[in-house]
């Protein structure tokens, strides 16, 4: 089909700009050939993870082994040519090269022979994982000091007699010059990098685990990723923005699990003022309802436990007061019924809810039930300052903002953390924000804009103040896409004896998400096309031990709550799910709990995972079948118009 240039001023201006990058017809033609070739490469592998909850060791291991994708490739490449134990050793080396090399060198009698065998094996694996990419993209992934050597080894084969000696000399020289360790580490890192083309994190990097800050350090270096914000991420974002209720919630959850590493070691949050206040105010109070939930019993001494319980209670009471202040400030949220601390009668040791009196488990409230005391106010000023001046927290939240939003659409997959608010009949629910009503895609997009406005210096002060407050609604508001429940029963669980009050009714989305027509309605509303389109989200742990299936609505929706947090393992019976989407289709990976990085290195233990084929393509998917393919075809069309303009003298070539 012939290509014609529309001689509008806009088209000519665009082609003139394009000609600066491709100044001659030859340049334009060469790029067209390059892009057409890329369209016919296999689709890159996408990796989906959710609900990491600060479990950095398990997260990093899953990242290193690509949810078993590297182990699968090693098995395919070597088949029966090497023993299973050797495959396991090779995989461990790929995941943890520096540490594994130290163990090998301490035990191996003929290290040069081991180097020869291992380098050739790693080159084979690297050649396989790089086969989906252009040489240019692979080259960009190579470490500068070994770039030329790796590229030579990747594109030369030892079965070519003319090149066998050439390859052998390269490997010999790497070993004799003492660079074998560095070269092996470089190769292993390249394999890890190329095994996954893009990583999608469906929310909740933060909460309860010890290393959210470590995970964020990893992500700042990671090559290609996006995040759909989760409710715990939003809570930390609110704390970083200066929302005191969010600050209290962040502290409370960390104290609840006696896990302060991210706060103190990661972000330098000074908890001494809180400890001092707690001892002064609750020194004689055993704070039994606030004793931390220890994920690993025996790691915390009794004295520390008692202090943590007092700090836990102190910040919880302040949290309720700070939340109540915002609920009263924003009656349009319709959350004033959640101001339960104000309904407490300490003399009667009861709390009145909807006219009914409920017995209290704990009635020792020396700072009162209404506004902050002078001491609590002073404490909050110090805590607020500590969060606001943490440079590392600011950097990490900036990374989450730059790499994410409330939802993402990628290759006919709609990604979000928790829900899309629905009415009981499955239609999209209108949610009012600042006097305007939004639903579905418009709701998600406006919330994303509102969140960003809390951090932008040029935001109008009134809007910025509201945006900062709104983080609390996103955390616990009934119609928040990140919460979507009737209430957050935090107060009831701490203070009331009647367990019936603990119930949190899930929104209509969670009741209807197994209905294919409802999922189709959501996909239509977000403009997601394609014959094999899906919703992928996390947030709610899948109870595999009770027979719950993560694949819902006839395959239209996949729930991949990562289950990384130890707190969920006894409840779900597994350590959650991750998802792999490669050129042949979807594979859901069910994981058992991760022991430790040390076990993985010393004993070669991997996360025991079970792969389930969710959906296989009738043909091997190519780049042409992806969103990237559509972009490339548009670029090719533009370049063809430029080529036409050159050949017909509409635009002059810029030759030197």
Protein traits:
656 residues, alpha/beta, seven-stranded mixed beta sheet, five-stranded mixed beta sheet, 17 strands, 10% strand, globular
Structure characterization notes:
The chain is an alpha/beta fold. The chain has 27 helices and 17 strands. Strands 7-3-2-1-15-16-17 form a seven-stranded mixed beta sheet. α4 (69-78) packs across α5 (84-95), α13 packs across α19 and α20 packs across α21. The longest helix is centred in the middle third of the chain and has 28 residues, at 302-329. It is globular.
Extended strand count? 17
SS-based class: alpha/beta
Largest sheet: spatial strand order: 7-3-2-1-15-16-17
**Distance linking N and C termini:** 32 Å
Largest sheet: 7 strands, mixed
Shape: globular
- The level of helicity is 40-55%
User: Counting H and I runs of at least 4 residues, what is the number of helices?
Assistant: 27
Overall pLDDT metric: 90
Point out poorly predicted stretches: none
Strand content: 5-15%
Rg measurement, Å: 28 Å
